[in-house]
Specification:
There is one protein chain. The protein is about 70% helix and about 0% strand. With about 300 residues, it is mostly helical. The longest helix has about 30 residues. About 45% of the residues are buried. About 5% of the residues have low confidence.
């Protein structure tokens, strides 16, 4: 039964991750908007991308997507998709499987339900462990998604997730594979607790009140609500995580950020508090469909594998 939860969660996560990858890429590009203005010291490298005076102009998700297609072609929207597959295989499979095990053990046998605080606790534990396992793929994914926004001479040009991980380990040390891991773990704990716990809670509420029967309508409604909750809770951590993972550390020079706290302070000081919610529209645009695809697929996979 324990292994079955990992398989079901893994299949659903990979399907959801691949189908919403372009939205995730746009989100990452938007979260990095304005960063060059205070991270890179040489304005000449920025060309026409960032104005030399005044705050950088922020571009919406549709414009970001169109720019990617115009500059690099439609296939560029799937840059880093191999890293997404690996990340979902490691991170999401682990978190979904562990959550399912804890849910089975902590569910009240008489009522068949689990109290909300137990759901949140299970999500925090499962998300933290899953993130620690999947961090190398997460770093590779962020870098591959962000590479296209850099000037041609500064691009890393990773060929695949394997190439990205091997180059990072070779050029920056094995420790670079866990760069931003504290942020990844914190974000994953928040995502899993808010996403999985709220999905189960919303689903139970809908069924208890008789609003809908246990079917596609219930699954879509509960999963969209869960996606909104997860987006609101995790966006600030996600912005900082993206920037820390994407920073380019050059030999003999101090890194752009001393850590997560320094990144957050620099971002707020330079761009304002609302910079922590950069990319929120694509985040909810991605988190909503991702969560819907995740749980609808999960419910269908469970039905297919119920006799195993």
């Amino acid at each position: 039964m324990g292994l079955k939860g990992f398989v079901e969660g893994g299949i659903a996560s990979i399907v959801a991750g691949c189908s919403t990858h372009p939205l995730d890429l746009i989100k990452v590009r938007m979260q990095l908007q304005g960063e060059n203005a205070h991270v890179h010291a040489a304005p000449a490298q920025l060309g026409a991308q960032i104005p030399t005076s005044g705050p950088p102009r922020r571009v919406g998700p549709v414009a970001v997507g169109m720019r990617i297609i115009q500059q690099d072609g439609a296939a560029a929207l799937f840059s880093g998709v191999s890293a997404t597959v690996l990340r979902q295989t490691l991170y999401s499979t682990t978190r979904m499987g562990l959550y399912d095990i804890m849910k089975t053990k902590w569910t009240d046998p008489e009522t068949g339900t689990m109290r909300l605080w137990k759901k949140i606790g299970a999500g925090l534990i499962a998300g933290g462990i899953g993130a620690a396992v999947g961090n190398p793929a997460d770093v590779a994914m962020v870098r591959m998604q962000a590479d296209g926004r850099l000037p041609a001479l500064q691009r890393r040009n990773y060929k695949s997730v394997v190439d990205a991980i091997s180059q990072m380990a070779k050029n920056e040390g094995v420790g670079s594979l866990w760069r931003g891991s504290s942020l990844t773990v914190n974000r994953a704990m928040l995502v899993t607790a808010s996403q999985l716990a709220s999905y189960d809670q919303f689903k139970e509420m809908i069924l208890e009140k008789g609003v809908m029967e246990d079917g596609l309508g219930t699954h879509v409604t509960a999963s969209f609500a869960a996606g909104f909750v997860a987006s609101v809770v995790t966006n600030p951590v996600d912005v900082i995580k993206t920037r820390v993972m994407n920073m380019k550390v050059e030999p003999g020079k101090a890194p752009p950020y001393a850590g997560a706290t320094d990144c957050a302070l620099q971002t707020i000081r330079t761009e304002g508090v609302m910079a922590l919610y950069k990319g929120f529209i694509p985040t909810i645009s991605r988190q909503g469909p991702f969560t819907i695809v995740l749980f609808v697929t999960l419910e269908q996979v469970r039905r297919l594998l119920k006799d195993f």
